[in-house]
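Before a colleague's protein record goes any further, I have to sign it off. My question to you is simply how this chain folds and whether the C-alpha cells agree. I do not need a full report, just your reasoning and any doubts. This is what I was given:
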Amino acid sequence: MAKIMVVDDAAFLRAMLKDILIKAGHEVVFEAENGLEAVEKYKAVRPDLVTMDITMPVMEGVEAVKEIRKLDPGASIVMCSAMGQKNLIIEAIQSGAKDFIVKPFQSNRVLEAINKAIG
C-alpha cells in the first residue's frame, strides 16, 4: 500500500483516479488542483507517489515535476496525460517522472504504472 497524492485540475478525474487507487488498497493522502499546490503540499505530506496531470493552471505538471524533484530527487511521479501530448510526456520523463498514464484512465494500466514506480 502506498500513500499517494493525486494532482489534476479536473475534480472528476481526481475522483476517478482516487477510486481506482483506493480499490487497489492505496491511500490517497492529498489531492491538488494545480502544480503549485502540489509542490507546496509535497513538502508537508511527503507521499510515496504523485500522479501528476500535465496541463493545469497556475503551474504546469512538467514544471511541478522539476520543483518536486529539487525538493526530493527520489520522488516517484507518474504523469497523467491526454492523447496528443507526446512532447510534454517526453519532457516530463526527462525531468524525472517514472511513467505516464493516458486519459481516459484504465484501471489495470494505472495500477501497473503505480506499482512499477513504487516497485
In short: The longest strand covers residues 27-32. The mean pLDDT is 94. The two ends are 11 Å apart (CA to CA).
